[in-house]
Fold this sequence. Notes:
This protein is of the alpha/beta class. It is 51% helix and 14% strand.
Amino acid sequence: MTDLALVIFWAAVALLAYTYIVFPALLFVRGLLWRKPYRAEDITPSVSLIIAAYNEAASIGAKLENVVALDYPRDCLEVIVASDGSTDRTEAIVSSYADRGVRLLALPRQGKAGVLNAAVAAASGEILVFSDANSAYAPNAIRRLVRPFADPEVGGVAGNQVYLPARRDADAGAARTGDGERTYWGFDRLLKQIQSQAGNTISATGAIYGIRRALFPGVPEGVTDDFATSTAVIAQGYRLVFAPDAQAYEPVAKSSGVEFGRKVRVMTRGLRAVLVRRALLNPFRYGFYAVQLFSHKVLRRLMFVPLALLLIANPFLVGEGWFYQLTMLAQIAFYGAALIGALFRDTRLGRLKFVTIPYYICLVYLAAAVATFNILRGHQINRWEPQRQQAA
């Protein structure tokens, strides 16, 4: 039994080490040695800013105030809000901005994929920019986002989503998940920059990204639209680059329950999107990008498996020496801190970083396990009820 436990333990360690140490180090080295610059200029192509909305009355007014104040030529910016059969005041609020250049596309309830496809069909801009209803753009965000399109090899640009710190009067859940979310995204942002410098960033985030209209493939059902749309650029032979100075600000989830549901939905749709774009996993055709995609979007989503195997195998090895005793104590401390974060989530103790970060990591991997189970049983998530905080 000890020999089997040793094999399981070290196989799990190897998978974790590759995913979180070797692969990022490989990206850093490649980014230093293999630079692939692109041209970026101050250009003002015609832009269609598309916002899909379903019952976003709490956020859409602030979002549109932000949009109409953006520093971009008004005659080059088309704003389309596509309502997915909203039943609250969303459509009325959007209609009140008609005289300020905002166009409402009122559609029957059909899910985000159909709504985005309809919005693109109605759009006229050379560049399609997609945004969430609860994110706020920096004033120069679109100017910064379109600069790389001066290079004809660039087909898509991923913007920089920045999570805002939880307000002091926010509930404990926002503070708790926010620390973990910002830490995770800070690491992810660094990887995006390195990937972009040497070729292609993995994919875009839905808060802010743009693609050439001619490259929009249509959004399939049951996938994350930002991943499917942005990676279609790479599938068609163009570059997808990262613009860190094109910033969108977004609040963290108000509670861990909301965040867990969001993570399950995003990961389920994200894994299904990888299946849709599985041709990109072919290294003979897409080179190092295929390695990036597999390591970042597949292995990272499945890391709950080696983590579980470590926890199962380690107790059988504590009699094999001090190293295995230390790893067992480290696991007990980590999961103990996460448990404290869960049990004391509404107290000051539950907001300390030494418990918020382990709690968030466990939340992410539990969501990944549920999402993987959803994929294995063929479950799709096409529609959902938004549970957002107001736009910043």
